[in-house]
């Protein structure tokens, strides 16, 4: 069915109120967008992040009386000096199919491919990870994931144990197993990530080699390789937890970090690790290091 999208420019302190009003006026869905295209960070489950200048986007049925909605909008007290908005007619299409059609197999490094489960494998002789991301973060298209995949392709050795901290869709842990690792422990705060990782592990025939946990259940172990593709803030705050997973002489890769955040994250780990040169892609970086000792 066709839709009408109403975009309203507002501020972070008013965004929730505008959202509530749009839902009260008949919006089928409401979302929030940064007005100035600041990099988007993944929120914690249940958390909503607003930007200083936020665009609230309401989705309405095309038959909805939008003249009444706009009339009510003009009467809102905090828009007394005028409201900036935009009405858009959305094309009637299968948005899930549109997304699937634009998700293609991607190659990382010398031998590693990530292939959507609904597409043909380009190179059957390569190391192929079959992926259905579902609701969990991690498809390989984002620079932070790409940086980690390239690193895994270079560093994973047979028989290694790997910790994927913030496993999302399971893409990194499954790639490590396909590259020869013996065992992967995946940890994520989101139950949907555990479900997606479980399904993707089965799709790649590695269910017997991957263990998946919520943080409250995470085991005690030291691994040959630890990869954490989350966010700069949690990477710094959880540095002791993440560091403890790396055995002496083991390898660590950290991503989900903007260029401007690299030094502060590195500072949280440098007393235990020796860092390699920073790898960059677009505005994102990957930090890689070896733990002292061993």
TrEMBL record:
It is found in: Cytoplasm. The keyword Metal-binding does not apply. Its EC number is 2.1.1.-. GO terms for cellular component: cytosol; ribosome. S-adenosyl-L-methionine binds at residues 145, 166, 188, 229. GO terms for biological process: methylation. Pfam families: PrmA. It comes from the Bacteria. The keyword Cytoplasm applies. Keywords: Cytoplasm, Methyltransferase, Ribonucleoprotein, Ribosomal protein, S-adenosyl-L-methionine, Transferase. It catalyses: L-lysyl-[protein] + 3 S-adenosyl-L-methionine = N(6),N(6),N(6)-trimethyl-L-lysyl-[protein] + 3 S-adenosyl-L-homocysteine + 3 H(+). InterPro entries: Ribosomal_L11_MeTrfase_PrmA, Ribosomal_PrmA_MeTrfase, SAM-dependent_MTases_sf. GO terms for molecular function: protein-lysine N-methyltransferase activity. Belongs to the methyltransferase superfamily. PrmA family. HAMAP family: Methyltr_PrmA. Methylates ribosomal protein L11. This is Ribosomal protein L11 methyltransferase. It comes from Arsukibacterium ikkense. The lineage of its organism: Bacteria, Pseudomonadati, Pseudomonadota, Gammaproteobacteria, Chromatiales. The gene is prmA.
């Amino acid at each position: 069915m066709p839709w009408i999208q109403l975009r309203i420019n507002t501020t972070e302190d008013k965004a929730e109120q505008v959202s509530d009003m749009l839902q009260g006026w008949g919006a089928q869905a409401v979302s929030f967008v940064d007005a100035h295209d600041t990099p988007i960070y993944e929120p914690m489950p249940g958390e909503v992040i607003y930007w200083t200048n936020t665009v609230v986007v309401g989705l309405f049925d095309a038959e909805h009386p939008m003249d009444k909605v706009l009339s009510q909008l003009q009467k809102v007290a905090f828009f007394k000096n005028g409201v900036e908005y935009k009405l858009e007619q959305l094309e009637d299409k299968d948005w899930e199919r549109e997304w699937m059609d634009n998700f293609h197999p991607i190659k990382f490094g010398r031998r590693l491919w990530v292939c959507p489960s609904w597409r043909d494998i380009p190179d059957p002789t390569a190391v192929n990870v079959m992926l259905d991301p579902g609701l969990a973060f991690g498809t390989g298209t984002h620079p932070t994931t790409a940086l980690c995949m390239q690193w895994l392709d270079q560093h994973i050795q047979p028989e290694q144990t790997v910790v994927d901290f913030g496993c999302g869709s399971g893409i990194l842990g499954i790639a490590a197993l396909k590259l020869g690792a013996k065992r992967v422990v995946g940890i994520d705060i989101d139950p949907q990530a555990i479900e997606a990782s479980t399904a993707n592990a089965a799709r790649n025939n590695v269910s017997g080699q991957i263990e998946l946990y919520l943080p409250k259940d995470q085991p005690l172990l030291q691994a040959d390789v630890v990869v954490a593709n989350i966010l700069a803030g949690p990477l710094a705050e959880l540095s002791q937890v993440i560091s403890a997973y790396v055995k002496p002489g083991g390898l660590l890769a950290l991503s989900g970090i903007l260029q401007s955040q690299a030094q502060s994250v590195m500072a949280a780990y440098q007393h235990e690790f020796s860092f390699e040169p920073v790898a960059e892609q677009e505005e994102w970086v990957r930090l890689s290091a070896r733990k002292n000792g061993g």
